Amino acid sequence: MTTPESNVELVDAGQLTLDLIEAQYGLKNTRGQKNAKSLVILVSGIELAGKGEAVKQLREWVDPRYLRVKADPPYMMQKNQAFWQPYTRYIPAEGQMIVMFGNWYSDLLATALHVSEPMDDTLFDAYVAQMNAFEQDLKNNHVDVIKVWFDLSWKSLQKRLDKMDVEEQRWHKLHGLDWRNKKQYDNVQKLRQRFTDDWLIIDCEDAEVRDQQFAQAILKNLKHLPHYPTQVKTKWKQAEVPKALLAPATAEMSSEDYKAELKSLSKKVAKAMRFDPRKVLITFEGMDAAGKGGAIKRIVKKLDPREYGIYTIAAPEKYELARPYLWRFWTKLLEDEKISIFDRTWYGRVLVERIEGFATPVEWQRAYDEINRFEKDLSDNQYIIVKFWLAISKDEQELRFKAREETPHKRFKITEDDWRNRSHWDDYLNAAADMLQRTNTFYAPWHVIATNDKYSARVEVLKAILKQLKAD
Amino acid sequence: MTTPESNVELVDAGQLTLDLIEAQYGLKNTRGQKNAKSLVILVSGIELAGKGEAVKQLREWVDPRYLRVKADPPYMMQKNQAFWQPYTRYIPAEGQMIVMFGNWYSDLLATALHVSEPMDDTLFDAYVAQMNAFEQDLKNNHVDVIKVWFDLSWKSLQKRLDKMDVEEQRWHKLHGLDWRNKKQYDNVQKLRQRFTDDWLIIDCEDAEVRDQQFAQAILKNLKHLPHYPTQVKTKWKQAEVPKALLAPATAEMSSEDYKAELKSLSKKVAKAMRFDPRKVLITFEGMDAAGKGGAIKRIVKKLDPREYGIYTIAAPEKYELARPYLWRFWTKLLEDEKISIFDRTWYGRVLVERIEGFATPVEWQRAYDEINRFEKDLSDNQYIIVKFWLAISKDEQELRFKAREETPHKRFKITEDDWRNRSHWDDYLNAAADMLQRTNTFYAPWHVIATNDKYSARVEVLKAILKQLKAD
To answer: Sorted alphabetically, which InterPro entries does this protein's record hold (chains A, B) (predicted)?
Structure first.
């Protein structure tokens, strides 16, 4: 049968459950395959429309062990967290799915409804655009997103409120909204229409229609396994390698000058970072032995060890590879960490992963925009981002490699990988050139530091931080 | 030179840093080796003694990228979290180390000092005993623990308080204690002496002595790589396999009776779990195809999907194998989850890991006590633990395997592993018998359910939950 309102054909529940379970195991089997995906289901809607019941019914129809459900009270959109930060750790690995009751849209709605001043439409729409872009990035990186709005008319809502008993009220958290207030109801409807264009809207008048429409939409999505293109259409325009990378200009500094400069600069840097109202994110890329570790040591010299975290990025683990490549960085950015320093970063996508072929051309060519958006979201939410490329000459690298091999406490720092990377020297220079050209944004600028002379390099790093913090 | 107070020989700082870095890389290289370990450094002490400074100096001497530092304000010892719950997620993988400023002892101290009524000595000592046992379990499972108390005399503390300026005060969080109050100082000293017997106590009168004593202790520990015994000394006393496992008594139930019973029981179970003040932890073990999934489905039938989480346990991943085997369960128990259901559990240690040889005899034979302690800690902190062994006969399993292979939506449930496990049938029965005998505690009892008849099995599971919740 077809219901007139929604054009949903009610199917046999027994068949539906068989189809859902089969599709669910089909999804599980995509793990590690070319058509892999995971599924994030965002649910929102009018109170008492029955989104809880629809998910409950779905969980009865599928194998509940492979459908995770996440529910949190809404986070107010804060100026110190990007909208995706509370959620990224729940993004499932390929082959898995999750229903998110609390999600970035419910946060936006709650914030718009609860702030003392009404949220400006332009700001609201800007958030929605950011959210859509984030979801597109998820989709490109094997995480499908399906969004469902459970709708209910004003009249039916009032009837359901009349019938609700005390125990039920306990389980329907009304998020402090007065659903008896027609003006507020209209306001919710008006606001949600600003973002639900690409949502499945379910009219929840009838419970059976609601549950079937929801489950059938999930089924359809589960069956649809994406094709991810690996070939690009146009030829890649390689950026010219800047002189600063080809032949890093070496300014030599005496030991005395260095010590004096370091003493004063490291104090200034500590103070500037500590008292800046923003969170500080400092990232390092560069050839092996360019001096990342040494620079980091000087940045933290005058900090209390409780004020900062250092993240040393190595090859991803299996559980990280089953998620978008940014996932392991999303989840390392802690809400309460004031200063975070990354020794190697997300730029691995367009450096080592590009060069070694771990990312397809489509993937790494798309990554520049993804990374820019990622950094923009952080920058919009109280992060100041200071990015370093440490530029060393090929000869100087060789000298340092050999010195490391001969020095007991440094020989652990050098491995066969380092020599192998060195054999790709020109590839890395080209990749770095493209990266610098495409990700040098006003909100997250690159600093290229010549490091053949260690002393002046460290001093320059500290000065660059001060400059970007406007504390010089 | 040797200082008279502490017998610390001050060594050349240059040599110390070389030794520390070498030892640090030595630790890194243990990963995956037989002598692997990670290192947790707990630091506590009198305010202004300088534990922050000592860690800062340590971080300058070592490679700071491989020394993580964790600092949190103290958690009050709560009745709904075991003392280790806020910390387990920070327990490092083999080859890594972390300094924990906030730790279970600082929580205990803060709680004892801040509760309106003084904490009973017996309770305090019981906590300390639990903490020591937990640390011993960590050590046995490749996580070394070193504990350092930074001490300062009353006189010196007062002098340092006199000299402290405003900016300094900002970075020394005094946790609301009045360090000008001699009585309170004495109380801290009295309390900490109840747990610092096996700690390194550093007298912090002199900063250089303090920093060197601390760093030298870490160096000594880094150099000491443990030997983990793999051979047991005595013969294992195999428990007799109970009849309930050998020949599960099958009570057949008609479809009508089942439906009626299920309807009433699933409602009762939902209500009982929802309104019980404790958190509910339900675990399932049993042969493949014994009906774990089906039983779980009926437990959650009348629950809102937001009220519970289901955890399906498969083989551990690499990052999980680099930590104690309980780690992946510790970190799944969420503070705010009311009902957690595990489809396979930590008992894998004494079942599949024992049988397949993934755990050595020493390891699995020790695991019974470790698991009992783990469950006791949870039970002491507002968890009710309901454990099920689903007992099926070998013939019935074969029937179900074949049925699964022939049913489209079930054929995904059967793999070669299942047939392989079946070939170890008697080993599993023996392992289950040992497990039931050694981990059937009053705070976390086992329920053995005969499952040859699916209907009666599901009903029995629900009844057992009600019984243990005293809601039948």
So the answer is: P-loop_NTPase, PPK2-related
